[in-house]
Amino acid sequence: MSDKNYKYIDFIRVFSIFMVILLHCICDYYADVANAGRNLWYVIGYANELARVAVPLFFMISGFLLLSKDITDIKAFYKKRILKIGIPFIAYDIFYYIYMTVQAGRDISVSGFFTELINCGSAYHLWFVYSILFIYLLMPFLQIIVKNCDAKKLIFLFLIAIFQTSIRPLINTFADGRFYLFLADDGITGYIGYVLLGYILGKYDLKKNTKRIIYALSIATFIITPLISMNRVLNTGDYLFLSGYSSNHYIEAAGIFIWCRDHLHKESKIITKLSHHSFSAYLIHVFFLEILKPIPLNLAPSSVMLLWFASVSVLSFAWSGAENSLKSVINIKTKR
User: What is the model's pTM?
Assistant: First the structure.
């Protein structure tokens, strides 16, 4: 099964990569407690809430597309993932290691590179690639599970997957010290929850009332969650609901996924092309942002962040297009 058969997947992927870029352009301003209470900070709080749905949607896309396939040859499945994801990741990790090391005034070394490689990479956004590759290792076995489950069993499995990382922290937050629920450590299961959610929402047709409930919950969560979090910051200086495992992100991502599935059926050549370039754009966008941030701009913070967002988006996709063209030329010469 190819995502070419699901036009809405391209729209979700393009929306998500732009939201990732937006998040990295605004996160420093929003995280700075000194900005708390300013009008722009409240606006950024909602932009932050929307942008943090991006990574969950990436996991959901992978869950739907890959769990819907018949993975009969595990070796071939792993090989394809390594060629498509693993090799570009290593190339970009080397690139970021050299760049970040030179910027910090440190000496470049093989041991230094491998020390960062086995940790979380040489740039902060590369954690996602580690997580998705680990989930790819599990995917053939997850498929065996989902193929032998009906919708009710899948929903129960989904709740099990997100309990430790999403439901348990929510319970402990509202318990406010009256008690603390532990049970087990957090882990990769939270992201598996997104994988399962994407498969469930992509495979099964939901009733109209169920969709309405999810839409209502998504909108209510989007409105209320930033207010709760920002009020908490003003009172205590602590942020809530920013974790990738937070329950609000499951609800909001579900609403966006369902809406796109129901309404975005027409093919767009521009969206398809941007979707094709999204992974390279994801890998390179932090580099352009790191170059732009030190440049002094005599502009309001809102204008600076908008300029970063527009510039990084254009540069990242331009880079990705050039990279893709270079690959095509190399492939043609290799075939000859």
Answer: 0.89
Please work out, in degrees rounded to the nearest 5, the angle formed at the alpha carbon of residue 37 by the alpha carbons of 33 and 42.
95
Would you state the pLDDT for residue 15? 97
**What 3-state class would DSSP assign to 6?**
coil
Domain hosting residue 224, numbered range:
3-335
Alpha carbons 190 and 126: distance in angstroms, whole number: 18
Q: How far is CA 21 from the centre of its chain?
A: 10
- For residues 146 and 199, the answer to whether their CB atoms sit within 8 Å is yes
Rounded-to-integer distance, Cα 233 and Cα 226, Å: 10
Evaluate whether 5 touches 16 at the Cβ level (below 8 Å): no
Residue 175, pLDDT score = 87
Residue 53 has pLDDT above 90, yes or no: yes
Is residue 268 left, alpha or beta, with left meaning phi > 0 and alpha meaning psi from -120 to 50? beta
For residue 195, give the amino acid letter: V
Q: d(Cα 45, Cα 226) in Å, to the nearest integer?
A: 6
User: Taking a C-beta distance cutoff of 8 angstroms, is the pair 250, 56 a contact?
Assistant: yes
User: What is the tally of structural domains in the chain?
Assistant: 1
Closest CA to 254 of 325, 166, 329: 166
Q: Are 56 and 132 in contact (CB under 8 A)?
A: no
DSSP state of 205: P
* Residue closest to 305 by CA, chosen among 24, 19, 18, 20: 24
DSSP secondary structure of 222-277: HHHHHHHHHHHHHHHS---S-STT-HHHHHHHHHHHHHHHHH--S--HHHHHHHHT
pLDDT tens digit sequence for 203-241: 999 999 999 999 999 999 999 999 999 999 999 888 888
